[in-house]
């Protein structure tokens, strides 16, 4: 949009200008004999420039934005309202494509030479890679440079989504894994609360201490959702490994820990969870789970549903947060995350306006809008973290507030051309291991073999 304003201003006030020299100022052409000197006409040009800028700023623009789950996601509407208030000439039209297969539907919508969208929300890295490969997204490097955006504010995440040296999205939401815990269950057992600096050995021991296997009053020391990330991500917290490695022997101690906890009824059985379809939110809100490793996205849900009465506060209302456990030698606060980003559509005819929106949402103003509803923006400052921890319903203890500070953030699914195929292999053999269809060694050997084929190893 900035380039568009500059173009209009120059057209309005310097129609007869010529460019002299590299980086030289634009000067008026030689005046007629009865005209004033060029230097005498400068004030008139200065007066015309604000008028041209004002006219350009008032030019109506409509941006069509692809999203999902508008009815149940508060921040979509919050962002639209705040941006339109700050930019009265812009109208944001949201198009809800639904969350089910969103990225697949979006890819179909963007296929061909045309598109109804100007801005699209990027839900995951595999889908992002697909859209970039189809040339449907606009490279943002020139826009970022012109706007003077400091990518360091995203904590290195930008480097993990750079494709062939270019960035095609800016992150505006960032969710990371933490441990939720039920203070009442720890109090009832007289067991100290978890801390922000737990090794996996300490975490496992704590889960076992608070477990109660008594029939009819069973308490699970911890809980894992059925996603492979709930187990496998423990292995990539050191910053040395990722799911793109091609060899996954480092997963073994974490599968041994979780399956051992299942055997001792420290956590629910994976096969039962899969068969019953028990959601992690129902497990924690039921009041019989002492700890649960889960994404920060659950914070907003938990606060909202306790306040509304949907969750029984007597069962889960006294909760807290701590940082993810870590291996020996790994810095406390190291965790895995997922980002949600915004991209400009290559076929849009209002790309400048579209980028202005992307820049605003992914910047400090957009971050404040996200934080106001308890969601985590990609740009996280102490002030913004304070906004979230200051919301009604957020735990008041210092440990929970400290849990929001991340020291190292690694993407659950970093960019690679074949990341979707790798994901599928890891998912398949995770299920096989957790369902006890194969041994841990057999499952990991199959991961190594199948992903090795994909990587040509």
Q: Please outline the major beta sheet.
A: 8 strands, mixed
Radius of gyration (CA) equals 26 Å
Stretches where pLDDT falls below 50 for ≥5 residues?
Answer: 1-56
General form: globular
* End-to-end CA span: 47 Å
Overall pLDDT metric? 87
- Our count of helices gives 21
Strand content: 5-15%
Roughly how much helix do the residues carry, as a percent range?
40-55%
Structural class: alpha/beta
Number of strands: 10
Ordered list of secondary-structure elements with their pairings:
Elements: H1 2-13, E1 18-19, E2 26-27, H2 42-57, E3 61-67, H3 74-86, E4 90-96, H4 102-109, E5 119-122, H5 125-133, H6 141-147, H7 157-160, E6 170-182, H8 183-189, H9 200-210, H10 229-232, H11 252-263, H12 270-276, H13 280-285, E7 291-295, H14 297-308, H15 313-316, E8 319-323, E9 334-344, H16 351-362, H17 364-371, H18 382-389, H19 398-402, E10 408-411, H20 419-434, H21 440-455
Parallel strand pairs: 3-4, 3-5, 9-10
Antiparallel strand pairs: 1-2, 5-9, 6-7, 6-8, 6-9
Helix pairs in contact: 1-2, 20-21
């Amino acid at each position: 949009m900035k380039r568009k304003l500059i173009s209009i201003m120059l057209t309005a006030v310097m129609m007869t200008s010529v460019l002299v020299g590299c980086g030289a100022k634009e000067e008026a052409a030689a005046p007629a004999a009865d005209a004033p000197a060029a230097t005498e006409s400068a004030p008139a040009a200065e007066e015309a420039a604000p008028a041209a800028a004002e006219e350009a700023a008032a030019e109506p623009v409509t941006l069509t934005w692809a999203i999902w789950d508008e009815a149940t996601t508060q921040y979509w509407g919050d962002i639209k309202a705040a941006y339109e208030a700050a930019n009265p000439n812009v109208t944001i039209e949201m198009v809800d494509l639904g969350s089910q297969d969103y990225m697949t539907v979006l890819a179909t919508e963007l296929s061909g030479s045309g598109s109804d969208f100007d801005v699209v929300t990027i839900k995951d890295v595999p889908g992002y890679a697909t859209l970039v490969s189809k040339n449907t997204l606009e490279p943002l490097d020139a826009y970022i440079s012109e706007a003077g955006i400091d990518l360091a504010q995203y904590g290195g995440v930008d480097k993990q989504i750079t494709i062939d040296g270019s960035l095609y999205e800016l992150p505006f939401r960032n969710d990371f894994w933490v441990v939720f815990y039920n203070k009442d269950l720890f109090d009832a057992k007289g067991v100290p609360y978890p801390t922000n600096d737990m090794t996996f050995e300490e975490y496992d021991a704590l889960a076992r201490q608070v477990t109660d296997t008594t029939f009819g009053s069973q308490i699970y020391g911890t809980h894992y959702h059925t996603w492979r990330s709930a187990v496998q991500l423990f292995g990539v917290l050191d910053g040395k490994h990722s799911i793109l490695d091609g060899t996954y022997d480092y997963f073994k101690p974490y599968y041994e820990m979780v399956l051992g906890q299942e055997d001792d009824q420290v956590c629910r059985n994976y096969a039962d969870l899969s068969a019953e379809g028990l959601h992690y939110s129902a497990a924690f809100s039921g009041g019989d789970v002492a700890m649960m490793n889960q994404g920060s996205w659950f914070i907003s849900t938990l606060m909202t549903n306790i306040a509304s009465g949907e969750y029984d506060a007597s069962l889960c209302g006294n909760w807290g947060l701590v940082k993810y456990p870590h291996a020996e030698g790994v810095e406390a606060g190291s965790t895995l995350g997922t980002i949600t980003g915004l991209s400009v559509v290559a076929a849009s005819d209002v790309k400048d306006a579209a980028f202005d929106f992307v820049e605003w949402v992914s910047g400090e103003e957009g971050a404040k809008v996200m934080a106001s509803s308890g969601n985590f923006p990609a740009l996280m400052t102490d002030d913004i973290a304070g906004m979230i921890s200051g919301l009604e319903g957020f735990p008041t203890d210092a440990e929970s507030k400290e849990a929001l500070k991340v020291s190292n953030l690694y993407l659950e699914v970093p960019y690679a051309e074949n990341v979707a195929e790798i994901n599928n292999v890891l998912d398949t053999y995770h299920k096989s291991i957790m369902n006890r269809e194969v041994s841990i060694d057999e499952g990991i050997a199959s991961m190594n073999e199948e992903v090795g084929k994909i990587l040509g190893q």
